[in-house]
Specification:
Structural class: alpha+beta
Number of domains: 2
Order of helices and strands: HHHHEEEEEEEEEEH
CATH architecture of the largest domain: Distorted Sandwich
Low-confidence stretches: 1-46
Distance between the termini: 79 Å
Radius of gyration: 29 Å
Bound molecules: zinc ion
């Protein structure tokens, strides 16, 4: 213990920098005593150099484990998406080759509360992952057509809002969640514009629209490829998600935790954790 204290005290005297010397005598004593206390807690006889060597060895030892964990993470994250992705790519090349993957606008699967909002293939579903750390918050329905061609309809009745700066998005407030009437939910529809942001939203809903009642099947607009970056548009599709309510407002749709698993609303296997490979359909 005394050896340790001596060592630190020597360090302090020889290594006193200008900042420390500007401190009052009292402060300096406090500082020194803290340094001593801190330095003396681990009573190891090792030198600093030895500790460094040990840290290096430890890091080298841990690298293979870190790589293995990263590999396992990537494997499980992408395996579930890759089989579906392969089907999407194949289908987009030639939509007529797999008509059985196609859903029709207005289709209701069994006793689902929501109808399918547009023609197309539900190529990416809730909690699919496109890149490490990414979790998809909704369903992507690909029409296989050009932009501005395939209609998008309301999947469920509610009150539509389109904020003043929304080119490609509308959101519909559903005061009573059909699955849990005590709570309010929001249904979010996006990519209804071309790459440059020319809107395909129905003229019924100009920018700044608030709380306009829409029935199931009301035409909202047309599928587009707007991403916000004209040089890097998305494939033509509708992204639809079910967003949580926070004291009367919709939460940030970009976070999966702010959305609900859409499976029970459509009565389709739309949760990637349970449906790892298949394109969901009901016919
Ligand atoms: Zn999406």
């Amino acid at each position: 213990m005394s050896t340790c204290a001596e060592f630190v005290r020597t360090q302090n005297i020889s290594g006193t920098d200008s900042k420390v010397s500007r401190l009052s005598r009292q402060n300096r004593e406090i500082l020194q005593s803290e340094v001593i206390t801190f330095a003396c807690i681990p009573e190891f006889p090792h030198s600093h150099r030895y500790n460094l060597l040990m840290s290096k060895k430890l890091i080298l030892f841990l690298i293979p484990f870190a790589l293995a964990i990263a590999g396992i993470y990537l494997y499980f994250n992408f395996r579930r998406t890759s089989a579906r992705t392969a089907q999407v790519i194949q289908w987009l090349r030639d939509p007529s080759s797999h008509p059985e993957l196609m859903m029709t606008a207005g289709a209701r699967c069994g006793d689902a509360p929501f109808v399918f909002p547009t023609d197309g293939m539900a190529g990416f579903i809730w909690d699919d992952s496109f890149r490490p750390g990414h979790r998809h918050q909704g369903i992507d329905i690909f029409a296989g057509t050009d932009v501005g061609v395939t209609p998008v309809y309301a999947a469920y009745p509610g009150y539509l809002t389109r904020q003043a700066d929304w080119k490609s998005t509308v959101i519909v407030r559903v005061p009573e969640d059909p699955l849990k009437p005590a709570r309010q939910i929001w249904v979010y529809y996006t990519h209804l514009a071309d790459a440059n942001g020319a809107s395909f939203i129905s003229e019924q809903f100009p920018p700044g629209t608030t709380e306009v009642y829409v029935e199931t099947g009301t035409l909202l607009g047309y599928q587009g490829n707007y991403s916000g970056d004209p040089n890097n548009p998305v494939g033509v599709h509708l992204h639809i998600s079910i967003v949580k309510d926070n004291f009367g407002s919709f939460m940030n749709e970009l976070e999966i935790d702010n959305t609900y698993d859409p499976s029970p609303y459509f009565n389709l296997p739309l949760n990637a954790n349970r449906n790892k490979e298949d394109v969901p359909v009901c016919n």
